Structures are given as structure tokens and as C-alpha cells.
Input
Amino acid sequence: MLRKMTMLLFAILVNYATAVIAADADVDFSKAYVIPEQSTINKLTIGGVKPLWTDLFYSVDFTLQPDYSLSIVGVLNQFSLAEQLEQALRNSKWQGTYLVYGRTYTTTLDLRVVQDGYIGGEVSHINQNGTSGFLTARLTGDILTQYAINGQFVDQDRIAPDVLKTLPLNTTTRQLVRIKRMRALTFQNNADSSGWSTNREYRMTLQNGKLTGVVGIPAAIYGVDDGTTDNGTIELTRVP
Output
């Protein structure tokens, strides 16, 4: 049994390495991930697969052969528009500024995981004002699409399915990203001894290639409007 598992893992790694490393490969597996809910015995489904001739992402089904090699079965399955966006954001880096309490911080946001509406990553802030304050922290949260209806942006999950189906294809949309600070990896207080709050939420919209919004204190209970006290502003642009 151990020998079979070893051979199987080796076959998977070889398939991945060959797909990623080959310079003349037709398919990019660099953002691929296993979809466990679609995988079964002797069948493996991988998402985040991108053919080099398109910007779209697909999932691919593999089956385990008697010699423990993996073979592609069927055709590529195109992701939904929401999943396309998520895959495009995975492993992306954003840089810009965070302004709060009269201080400006050079900011870098790494989005490590973006899948099924969830986001995970890291943020770093470095004081531009000549003092020594900095922070690097883990973040987690979600991303959702908003539709412009009657002059207001409405969350997709707040729109009835029958209404959503009738919206024109050219309806204006944007993505709302809400991520909270979690564990600090490294930090140092500013020269005036002011510290970094753990209770901060980054509320940003993704439009025209930029993430813009505020960094504020999350509401204490569900259903209450976001507070505006002690909010900072943030603007980030995607970088290679």
C-alpha cells in the first residue's frame, strides 16, 4: 500500500513539474489546485488551469491508470465569471499607500489565496515619515460582486435569483473586498509609541485595476452600519 501511494504521489508531482517547467507547454498549471469535492476514487479534478492561448481559467479531470500515471479525461471545463476573477487575483501583488492619523505608510498586499469567495494573504505597512513604525500581518476575508441597481451597488447575495437573471448584461459591476487583520508576523511601534491595532478591517472596491477604500474598525455586531471613526484611507495598484 505504501509503495502504491508513493508511486501515485510521484506521478502527480511529475505531471505538475512537467506542466509548469516546460517552456513550450501549451497549458499553464502554475495556479492549479485540487478540487476535492469533485475528485473521487481514481479521479482527480484540478482547477486554475490556464491554456496559453487565452486569459480564461478551466478545470481538468484526470484519471488514474493501471501504471499509476494520470491521463486527462474529456474536455476543459470553463469557470464562471466570478471564478475567472478569483483565479486572476490569486498570487497577485498590490502596492500603494495607507494614510491614517497624518502618517503615510508604504503598503504591499499579497493575495495568496482567492477561492470560492474567500481571500487570504499578507499585508505590510512601512512608515514613510522617517519613523521606524512597521507592520506585517496575515489577513483573511471575502470578495463578492456588487451590481448597480437604481443608482446603488447591491451585493450579489442580496439580490433574488430571479431578479439577478433579468439584469442586462451591461449592468455595471464592481468587486467588494473585505479582509481583516489576523496574526501579526512582525511589527514595531511608531516613534511616539503608538501601536498597531488588531481590530482593523480593510474595506476596498476593485475597479479599473485599483483597490481603493478605507481601513476601519469592524462593526461590533452584525447588521450595524460600518463605523467611520479612526478610519484610514488606502489605495493600491497591481504590480507584476
In short: Residues 2-79 form one domain.
